[in-house]
Amino acid sequence: MLNIGHRGAKGYEPENTLLSFQKAIDIGVDGIELDIHLSSDGAIMVIHDETLDRTTNGKGFVNELSLQKLKTFQIEKENTIPTLIEVFDLVNKRCFINIELKGKGTSKPVINLIEHYIEEKNWNYGHFIISSFNWSALQEVRKWNAKIPIGVLTHTDLDLAIAFAKFIKAETIHPYFHLLTKENTIKMQNEGFKVFAWTVNETEDIQKIKSFHVNGIISDFPDRI
Ligand code: G3P
Ligand code: CA
């Protein structure tokens, strides 16, 4: 069962920062999860919300500001918003990276970047999973690349997620952990998909989800997994 650090190690360090990703790696995760939006000039920025307001000292929409401007805003502990390139270079193949597409227009730039790391830097498809609640964005990903592992995110209907996962040849289904039972976990696995549950933080929930034999757990506290 894979241990995946949510937004790095969000329980210990500011989410989606290099510090948080390094902390997750120090804990010994198999993978990190992160969220992306585009800047106004097309840089892939690692940030959860579409605005700066909650996690930085700035205000406004990420996709209305340039990379240079976005880099002027501070996150606590002297962090700035990382680019996806900075995260790839920090991780340097030490674990896989689950990239969650949040912002519009991210599918093609992400595929271009991943293909560059595979072709030029000796990474492989096992270093990546692309997930999203925006299933049209996942369809675009599959249109651009036949090999990249895709994770279908859902907080509602597992049968619909299975049908869509088959349609786009996904590798994993990522359900909100409260949706899971032992039976529906087995059903997804029998249909050919790995099951990555999110976001499981409390020890008793972790024990319960582990008892369903999921394939991965995404947690703010990866040391508890
Ligand atoms: O990828 C799982 C989880 O991160 C989805 O929800 O809101 O934390 O991005 P959220
Ligand atoms: Ca996420």
From TrEMBL:
Pfam families: GDPD. Gene3D superfamilies: Phosphatidylinositol (PI) phosphodiesterase. Signal peptide: none annotated. SUPFAM superfamilies: PLC-like phosphodiesterases (SSF51695). Residues 1-225 form the GP-PDE domain. InterPro entries: GP_PDE_dom (IPR030395), PLC-like_Pdiesterase_TIM-brl (IPR017946). PANTHER family: GLYCEROPHOSPHODIESTER PHOSPHODIESTERASE, GLYCEROPHOSPHORYL DIESTER PHOSPHODIESTERASE. This is Glycerophosphodiester phosphodiesterase. It comes from Flavobacterium myungsuense.
